[in-house]
Design the sequence.
C-alpha cells in the first residue's frame, strides 16, 4: 500500500483501490471517497487496478497527488471538492514495457524521488498535474526512500556486481552524501533478519 498527504487530505492505496480521507477535524478523521465505491449490498470488495499504487507523493505547489503503480505507470490525480480524479497516466518506459518495481516515494527539495528497486528515479513537477522523470541513478538498488526538509534518505540493498554496500545513504539539500548507516544483520535464533 501507499499513502500521500496534501494539506488535511490523505490518499491511501491498498490491494483493492484507494481512499481519500479528510483529517481537518483531528479527533474525527473521515473517509470522503473510496475508489472504487463500495456498494453495501456486495459480498466482496470491488477492485479498481487504476487506483492501486505502491507509492504516492503530493505536488508541492498544486492540488495533485501522483500515484506510482508497481510496474507500469504514474497517475496524476487532481484533488477537488468531488474527490480525486485521474487526469493522466504516464508510462514509466517507452512502448509500455513493465518496469520493476516502484516501492516507495518522497518529495525532497521540490522534486519527487522514487525507489524502483533497480534504481532511484527523480521526477520534476512541471505544473498542471504533469510530472516527468529527470534523472535515474542505477548504481543504487533503492528499496526505500524518505526525506526531511534537509535530508534525503535512500535505503540501498546491494546485489551481486554492485559496488556500494547495503545501508542508508543520507544526502543533504546541496546533493552531497553526508552520512552512511550500514545495514546490520540481526540474528534471532537460527534466522537472520
Sequence:
Amino acid at each position: 500500500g501507499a499513502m500521500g498527504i496534501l494539506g488535511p487530505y490523505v490518499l491511501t492505496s491498498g490491494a483493492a483501490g484507494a481512499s481519500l480521507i479528510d483529517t481537518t477535524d483531528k479527533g474525527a478523521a473521515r473517509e470522503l471517497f473510496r475508489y472504487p465505491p463500495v456498494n453495501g449490498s456486495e459480498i466482496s470488495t470491488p477492485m479498481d487496478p487504476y487506483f492501486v499504487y505502491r507509492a504516492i507523493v503530493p505536488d508541492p505547489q498544486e492540488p495533485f497527488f501522483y500515484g506510482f503503480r508497481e510496474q507500469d505507470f504514474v497517475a496524476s490525480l487532481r484533488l477537488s471538492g468531488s474527490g480525486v480524479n485521474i487526469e493522466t497516466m504516464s508510462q514509466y518506459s517507452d512502448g509500455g514495457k513493465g518496469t520493476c518495481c516502484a516501492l516507495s516515494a518522497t518529495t525532497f527539495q521540490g522534486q519527487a524521488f522514487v525507489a524502483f528497486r533497480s534504481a532511484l528515479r527523480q521526477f520534476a513537477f512541471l505544473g498542471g498535474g504533469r510530472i516527468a522523470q529527470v534523472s535515474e541513478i542505477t548504481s543504487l538498488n533503492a528499496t526505500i526512500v524518505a526525506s526531511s526538509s534537509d535530508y534525503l534518505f535512500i535505503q540501498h540493498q546491494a546485489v551481486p556486481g554492485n559496488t556500494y554496500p547495503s545501508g542508508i545513504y543520507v544526502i543533504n539539500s546541496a546533493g552531497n552524501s553526508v552520512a552512511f548507516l550500514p545495514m546490520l544483520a540481526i540474528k534471532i535464533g537460527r534466522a537472520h533478519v
Notes: Residues 21 and 32 are 6 Å apart (CA to CA). The two ends are 22 Å apart (CA to CA). The chain has no helices and 18 strands. The chain has a mean pLDDT of 87.
